[in-house]
Amino acid sequence: MELGDLKTALAGEGERPWGGVDWNLASEGAGDQGGRSMVEDIFRRHGRSVQGESRRICAMLKAMVAALEVKQMEPKPAALFAALVLALEGIAAAGDGAGSPMEVEARSKDEAALLYLLEEAASRMQMQAVQMKFARSIKVVCKVLETKVVVHQPEKPSTSANTGTGSSQTQCAKFGVGCLSTLLCAHDPSNFLQASSAFGLLLSFSTDPRPKVRKRAQAGLSQVVRGMGQGLGQVPGLGKEKGKGNAPSLQHASRMVFEFGEQSVRELVEVTKAYENIHKEKSKKEARKTFEHKLQLATTRTFHVLGALKEIVGYLDPTEVLSILGLLDSLLDFKEVLLAHHTSLVLERFFQSSQLSYTMKPQALATLLQNLIERLLIIEDLMADSDIASSTLNMLLSGFRALNRLDSELCLECIPRLFHQCLHYFRRKDSEVFRIKVSSVLSELMDLCITDEAVRKALICVQSGDARHKKQNPVLSIITGVEAMLTVPYQDSWNSAFQLISKLALVVGDKHGALMKPMLQEVGLLAAGPENEWTEAIQECVGNAVRALGPECILDAIPLNIEDAVENGTEANSWLVFILKKNVHGASLEFWSKTLLPLARKVGEYASQLSSGEDVERAVLLAALEHQIWQTLPSFCRWSSDTAIGFKSLARSLGAALQNREDLRNYICNAITCIVKQNQTVLREAQENKDVFDGQSVSGEGSEFDFDESFPIPEFYDEDFAKANLDAVASFAKNFLPLLFNLFVSSRPSERGQIYDAIAAFGTITDSETLDGFYKNILKRMANSLQTIQSEGDKSMRDASIEQQGMLMDIAAALVPGLKREALEKLLSIVNVSIVYKDSGIQKKSYKLLFCMLKRSGDLKPTSILGIQESLSNAQGVCYAPAKKNRLLCVRAMISIIDSRVEDKEKDQETMTAMVTEIVMCTKEKNSKTHKAALDLLADIASSFKGLESVNDGPLLEPGPLGFINVVAGGLVASHPHMISATIVALTRLVYQYSDEIGPEVVMDVENAVSMLLKTKSREVVKSVLAFLSMYVTTIDGATLHGQLPKVIESLLIWANDTKNRFRLKIRHILEKVIRTLGIDEVTKYIPEEHLPLIRHIRKQKSQEKRKREGSVAGFSVKTRETAGKRTTWTYMEDEANDMGDNVTSSKFGATTVRSSGTAVRKRARRDPGGGLNDLSTSEPANLLDNREMVKMNARNMPSRGDSDSEDDIQFKTRKKDGKLIIKDDKYEKRERGSDEEMDDRRSVRSGRTARTSRTSKSGATMKTNRTSKTHASGKTIVKTKGTKKLEPFAYWPMDRKMLNRRAAKRKDAKKGLLHVVKSKGAKKGKKSNR
Questions:
Q1: What's the 3-state SS for 857-894?
Q2: Model pTM?
């Protein structure tokens, strides 16, 4: 290879002598990415490849570097660039003459390697350096590529010989096109003439029939045009230098692109016309075939041109883009599906480009969109294909978005044309996908273009009554089109229509709901009558309309008509009441009092009148309807828009209903609670101190009424508005509170929940002066009740006083937020006495009251706080189990109070440690609520833990969960096993919840400390440790678990041979979790020989489960359980409950066999009696198309082992006179018995299946006349009669699959007892012996 002119080519580069390349290090990728040289980078990518292409590239690079070493030059990109250009020139000159095919093949491979290296070198050079060598380098690259251009020969079939599609030729063309595009990116902007021929060559390759070459050329073309259009910014693929604007070059290049596309389109038009003439003239078959091939080539070339335009149309010069749009418009004249589809893709890229605003004016763009709508949407085949139709609609959507950015009003005027053009396809039954797509497009366009001003103008047009203006208004035109979709011809598209109505309602808003009235009336007519396939969609549509337009507009369009239905027998729209209940928010409370309240009273009167007559059925229906109307009251209170006014007009009626209607009290109390809670939420967001513990964040059972926080808070709800609402409600406290007190006392305990919430709501907003009068009366009665309780009087009187004391404490707890400080101090004295009283109910209510008082700890005196602290300490030993949950809440509140104090920190730390110890001990409580509350409180304390400090104010434990875990871990060294077990349970929850924060190292440290306790003799401690390990193996990642696997298995197997407390079952479950993570083979490596039977048992069980899954419905096992992901909570009781549900029997292999107890089976049977297709325990029927539903249904209907097949259909009776067993089957009751032996046999088999598993109740007479013998091998029941040795004709032997077993021992076991049934002892001779 001649490189004599290398120094001349590198003039001015200043290369220095260089020491060479270490090829081993280069192939290993030595050095970091930033400092790696070009040589090292290429060898890192291709040095270890066995592909011939990569090996040739490496060999060529070594040759280049060796040539540079001869000249004592470092192989920098500039030096390599010059050397590669010289090498290409030599190969190109040598290839001018003819050569053999092998020589041409070898030359193409060398050229491909050189072109690849040249592209790499050019992309690493500065732009000015490439521009200096641009003319020479681009010339040689074009010369090489010109020999690789495919020559189309329509008269001959396309082969690799005449198209140049060999692998080496294709590889060379692909690398050459990449190199050409990289060089073009660095051309001189002021001299596009020297780059024009190269750009034209790149354009020609963009339609190359070879896919790899064509795609690389189109990507390079996009790169070049984008670089020309960049005013500023880095030129793609070239160095790190910013380029200058190339406006002149972009104009010339855009013109060339247009001419190139015009040539392809013109060729397609000419060939198409010639082909049509050939068909008309009925020419010879060969001529038609030639023209067909020409047409195919022209069409393919046009597709490739469209593919190239899709990449560059957004970057071309705006003046030439308009001409290109004309070409695209001419392609639509063919009305060919694929051409229209690819044209749409190009137009979509154009609409999405940022240069659109500089290219077209809004009116021109609107005209183009209307033209596209009229020309594309009329092509039936285009709209029949779902993918192509979606692509077309996406293009139109992009166009409307662009037009909306330019002129929103003009965009809105164009939408009706699109909508009405698509109406035709809503009537077709084969356009479901298109209907869904066009519905989503229209919904987005409505949301994008319809503004409040446009809706206001539409409402003015409706009110004016001018028909001409109505037709011209775009909003009204859209509404008219949607309304037309509700007619019968569009029945298949009603679901889409309901979605569009929901979107329209949201866009129109509640202020202009009159526009939707005619449409909603049509929806109401469709909803009338019995349920149909559109009922659910209609209700969802009306529900969305209620949320968007408000109940006033909906009831105006779709009236309830209840009175007319009762009086005249017409149909009422009672279905609307439930929709109002679920969807009303932000409505007028005064509207409910004026409209729905009188209606509810009227319906109640109708119900009472009918109940006194003979029409009881209608009376019951009307009474239920009255309740449904009252149930809408809390919904109208949900973020009500006029609470201050509406509640005043409604207060008297609510009070009367509370006093006189026991069945309506829950609705009224829920309404009051809803108003107060929601308005307090607004105030709390403005002024709440979130550092104060309020008890609602942990173990909070919440209110009886959920006012559905999914509804957003209206914008008009500010602090002043909420205060006004609460003041209006509080002004009626003196009227409602006495009434609520009386109702609370007189109600049954199960009915006091809502009343208590209402009292608590009033207690938080009523002023202290008003509450003071009620409080004094309550306090006096509490003191009297407490005195009666402590006296030694009549037991019945004392029990009544205890019940009264509990109710008074509940009322006092509800009023605590509004009491004065002096009242709190007096109330505290009663609580300190009550918490130690020996009654669980009194203790529970006392702690609840104390917790409410601790929420107001800032209003209590410091001495009172110390008194509470001392009382809690003294009462710990006498606290009953039902009261411990509320006591824990008080302890948590005291911890927050103590933690906020600054004096005497050392003593406070000791007190807090004692309280934390109490919470830890409560994790072992059998009461599930107390257990869960303790775990939740520990997690809450850990999240807010501030750390502990020593006496010298030095940090002792860091804040956060890690420091609190260290505090709790101190219990591991306790002296009593119960404390150690409780500490492990607490650590299990804390580690599980905060594993991500504390890190895997801390988790492993805790596991090391806990696992050491497996060597203790306390089974309680071991049980807790196994629960911790069960959590541990699922919390850490697989890599960490693999490293800890030997130690974990060694710890587990300590108790593997234990036969008590189900430890073996727990260990097996833990091992199964490890196996699911690491695999059974990996776990088996660390299992000792004596414990391998356990692994074999697990492997066998897994294979059985796999066979069951493969053989069950839809590939799922009936017993497959869906496992939930990681939760943020864990309770020790769950692990314990899993063990208590099964009876466990140990096997000889160290494994266990789990059998469900009969009691548990009966309980499950009572909970799930049927489980058929229409299971009444669920709100919806079973989905027969869902495989998982079918599996669950089959699991419910399949009989378990040991259960009867159908205990309801088959009955067993014993005849008293002779002791014969009579089997009565309802399915065969109507058949004649006669002498049908086949039916008798079938009946015997069925009865035998049932007799195996049924429990037959036996009377005394039956016990005297029957003897039942059970065989241990098969578990079957054999029935014999007493008093005769002859053959019993009613005796039977059930079929057993063991009779077909190939093993003789199995068949022998199945035949045991058979002789007692089918053979008489006296029959030994003759034919009778064979009976």
A1: HHHCCHHHHHHHHHHHHHCHHHCCHHHHHHHHHHHHHH
A2: 0.69
